[in-house]
């Protein structure tokens, strides 16, 4: 399977040569194939947003290389092609809404692709439906009259309407209420099922574990871990160091294993955990 994303020794320094020089990314080597879902975790200031902005070429490596959908992100001549293929949803995207109506806001990307207006409209309605906005009457509203959570949905719909090959979301759950988080989590799960390549930055292992299959952990600009979720769960030292809290169902399984019970800990979903706990209970029914 060809890589959709590949970085080779990618490093990035803000304001090189000035007194403010700061190396935000150091020797990053990651790759992602089509359909994979990557979660990026790390403390504040670890370089997550800087890395996110590399995916669509907004920031170019100071040294090393990055290709996204086969396009070298450093080549300014290809930046328009890259923009069509890699859609980046910024942190707090609702602050960057600038069109007069919801419809125009979501149509901005498809119109820039040069699509005919009928297809633009189809894409707008489809994208709005995906983010749970069905009412026709919302389309002509001004985005500023909507709540923050609704504006976030509109901003995400604007990126979905471009139908990028890879979607990158920078902390999309931050500040959303429970209903908003559930909706977004369902949208992202669906993308994953449809094998649409996605990168999501998050603060919360619990929130991302349910969706992702690969995880990268950044600290001070370096990758501390890159691999499958299951492998991360085998590394209590890393989980402890970054205070990565496990979902309750895994805590139950680990607690039983720690107490010496024969229970499988190699588990990555609620479904698997419930099957294993059920098996465990049935086996131990007659008193351990
Ligand atoms: N525009 C900038 N100019 C200079 N330094 C920056 C800039 N943006 C971010 N940084 C610095 O780069 C580091 C990584 O920042 P960032 O990528 O925003 O981290 P995160 O998203 O993980 O919080 C931080 O030390 C931050 O202060
Ligand atoms: Mg950030």
Automatic annotation (TrEMBL):
One function term, GO molecular function aspect: ATPase-coupled transmembrane transporter activity
GO CC field: ATP-binding cassette (ABC) transporter complex
Top-rank taxon, per record: Bacteria
Subcellular localization(s) per the UniProt record: Cell membrane
Pfam families in the cross-refs: ABC_tran
Domain ABC transporter: 5-245
Membrane topology, as annotated: Peripheral membrane protein
SMART domains: AAA
CDD domains membership: ABC_cobalt_CbiO_domain1
Key words, A-Z: ATP-binding, Cell membrane, Membrane, Nucleotide-binding, Translocase, Transport
Protein family according to the UniProt entry: Belongs to the ABC transporter superfamily.
Protein name, per record: ATP-binding cassette domain-containing protein
């Amino acid at each position: 399977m060809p890589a959709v994303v590949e970085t080779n020794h990618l490093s990035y320094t803000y304001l090189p040569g000035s007194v403010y020089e700061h190396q935000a990314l150091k020797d990053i080597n990651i790759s992602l194939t089509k359909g994979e879902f990557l979660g990026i975790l790390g403390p504040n200031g670890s370089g997550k947003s800087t890395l996110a902005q590399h995916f669509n070429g907004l920031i170019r490596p100071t040294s090393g290389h990055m290709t996204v959908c086969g396009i070298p992100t450093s080549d300014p001549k290809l930046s328009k092609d890259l923009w069509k293929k890699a859609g980046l949803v910024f942190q707090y995207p609702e602050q960057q809404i600038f069109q007069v109506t919801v419809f125009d806001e979501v149509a901005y990307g498809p119109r820039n692709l040069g699509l005919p207006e009928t297809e633009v409209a189809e894409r707008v309605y489809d994208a709005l439906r995906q983010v749970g906005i069905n009412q026709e009457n919302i389309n002509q509203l001004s985005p500023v009259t909507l709540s923050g959570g609704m504006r976030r949905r509109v901003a995400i719909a604007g990126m979905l309407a471009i139908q990028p090959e890879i979607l990158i979301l920078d902390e999309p759950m931050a500040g959303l209420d429970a209903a908003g988080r559930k909706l977004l989590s369902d949208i992202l799960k669906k993308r994953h099922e449809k094998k649409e390549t996605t990168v999501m930055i998050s603060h919360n292992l619990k929130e991302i574990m349910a969706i992702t299959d690969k995880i990268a952990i950044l600290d001070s600009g370096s990758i501390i871990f890159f691999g499958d979720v299951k492998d991360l769960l085998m590394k209590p030292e890393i989980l402890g160091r970054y205070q990565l809290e496990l979902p309750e169902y895994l805590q139950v399984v680990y607690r039983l294993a720690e107490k010496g019970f024969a229970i499988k800990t190699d588990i990555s979903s609620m479904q698997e955990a419930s099957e294993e706990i059920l098996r465990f209970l049935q086996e131990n029914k007659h008193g351990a």
